[in-house]
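Agenda item 2: adenosine-5'-triphosphate complex prediction
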Amino acid sequence: MTAPLLEVRGLKTVFHALDGAWPAVDGVDLVVRRGEVLGLVGESGSGKSVTGFSLVQLIDAPGEVIAGDVLFNGEDLRLASGERLRSLRGDRIAMIFQDPLMTLNPVLSIGEQMCEAILEHRDCSRQDALNAAAKALSRVGISSPETRLKQFPHEFSGGMRQRVAIATALLNEPDLIIADEPTTALDVTIQSQILYEVQKLSRESGTAILWITHDLAVVAELADRVAVMYAGRIVETGPVDDILDHPLHPYTLGLLNSSAATINPGERLKQIDGAAPRIDSRPSGCPFRPRCERVLPSCAEEDPMPQIRGERIFRCHNPVPHGEAS
Ligand SMILES: Nc1ncnc2c1ncn2[C@@H]1O[C@H](COP(=O)(O)OP(=O)(O)OP(=O)(O)O)[C@@H](O)[C@H]1O
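Presented output:
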């Protein structure tokens, strides 16, 4: 088994409000191994993005990371200086967002900003940086890269802009990419192309990816392993095929039954009843219990601890038995 590249233990991030400090991320444990794609999946508001930003210490007030270890290559990023974090971000760890304009500067040409991203972390000539940028654009399927480098972000379509953002993220061959819903805004064909290319690139360069998404179809297509998030914690983790074949947590089963991508032709989609709780009104015990079809009296009394079954970890008092995953 490959050594973990990223190991997160007990990560807790709160948002301070007048009436208290409410946990958006509530004791998250995660492992990302070298070169793998880990899909972090869950409904809106489950805490996926806040987890991504907490990992790289990019949480601003009123948010605050208040507990946990974030070990990247063995180094605890929670203890790293601002300077050290800046040098890791964009070099060993890159981020891609749903809106590529969060990473692309609208007033600089693509070539200028890609060069800058290289020269900030590498000692090489501007011409070498430009050559590397052109190569990176070709790798994500952008033709005539030399011409494209002279253009500005607004001269690219949404899909092309996202490819540029991905090419920029890959420039310094990072060990880890944190991708937060980067294909959600794109049409399905472009989404598939980008997923395929990112998977290929990660395999070629050994880059691990934490892919944040609410879409199980993306996870099924791209990920090696999956972590399912609900109400600020990871409720189930395991290899993607095992989770899709036999979810153990009723929430994972609910997500599968409500995704067009994972049900059989002719079957009906079934949404999970109710809505995810707000961070300031989470129920005691298991936070999923008001929506759970397998709820037991003990679920109100005791928050389930993580249980390990082979490569699977889940938090549930009444997991889905084999053969009932539909
Ligand atoms: N700046 C903020 N101030 C207060 N609460 C916040 C802030 N940002 C996020 N939250 C809270 O943290 C919770 C988790 O948000 P997060 O964006 O991580 O969810 P998510 O799973 O990524 O959802 P989505 O898919 O909609 O982005 C949300 O319920 C939200 O209320």
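Discussion summary: The two ends are 31 Å apart (CA to CA).
Owner for follow-up: CH.
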